[in-house]
Specification:
The chain has 228 residues and is α/β, with parallel strands linked by helices. The chain contains 8 helices and 14 strands. A 5-stranded parallel beta sheet has the order 2-1-3-6-7, with helices on both faces. The chain has a 4-stranded antiparallel beta sheet with strand order 8-9-10-11, covered by helices on one side. A 3-stranded antiparallel beta sheet has the order 12-14-13. The two termini are 30 Å apart.
């Protein structure tokens, strides 16, 4: 899989580098957007999550490490960091914070494209197994089938879609905004009461004790997490 057509977010504040990357990556068949700051990068990921983020470690309003740490709280988005030769410590920090790979500046464009395609292949390979098990519940994403202790559970389409997103991010925090955008669309990202209602219904059908949920865990004020 070459990943042609994949959406890439380049986070870099040097205009010449951004222009060069856009040309090279678009010529390789990718859709490319750019952000120049930590704040702009996090906004871009929240509004339209890319397939891969290419992230410079030194940004005007902070560090690429901060971006890695924030994104990893709720997303498994592949991240390739751009590291200058003197950024060894920051590069290690970024990898520890969840970056998937790194390219050292100055870098060859063929190398960067190869690394982008490699993380896209790994992401595709990770998605081959569509069965997620969380405690007594199993979610077969390919068959759209949910079982509790081996017995199939009937979910409404909306309930299933909420559970599907949680299962896709299994054990990781999924923000209210991400869930609302994925299930209802971008116009509904403030309608958190939708989530409260449907999560309550899911808990009633899936939890051993819906009044003391251990499967769909609330992260107060932020979102939900599907437990292991």
């Amino acid at each position: 899989m070459g990943g042609e057509g994949a959406h890439l977010l380049v986070v870099e504040d040097e205009p010449q580098i951004v222009r060069g990357l856009k040309v090279v990556l678009r010529n390789a068949g990718f859709d490319v957007r750019a952000a120049e700051t930590v704040e702009a990068a996090l906004d871009a990921v929240a509004v339209r999550p890319p397939d891969v983020m290419i992230l410079d470690l030194v940004l005007p309003d902070g560090s690429g490490v901060e971006v890695c740490e924030d994104v990893r709280r709720w997303s498994s988005l592949p991240i390739i960091v751009l590291s200058a030769l003197g950024d060894e410590r920051e590069k290690v920090r970024a990898l520890n914070a969840g970056a998937d790979d790194y390219v050292t500046k100055p870098f060859g464009t063929d190398e960067l494209i190869a690394r982008v395609r490699a993380v896209l292949r790994r992401t595709a390979d990770a998605a081959v197994d569509p069965v997620v098990t969380a405690g007594i519940v199993t979610v077969d994403l390919a068959a759209r089938r949910v079982t509790r202790e081996g017995t199939e559970v009937h979910l409404t389409p909306i309930e299933y879609d909420v559970l599907r997103v949680l299962a896709t991010y299994h054990t990781r925090l999924v923000t209210h905004r991400t869930l609302l955008q994925a299930v209802w669309g971008p116009r509904y990202e403030a309608e958190t009461h939708y989530l409260r209602v449907h999560v309550a219904h899911l808990r009633a059908k899936l939890e051993a004790d819906a009044s003391r949920p251990t499967l769909i865990v609330t992260e107060p004020g932020v979102g939900y997490r599907l437990a292991s």
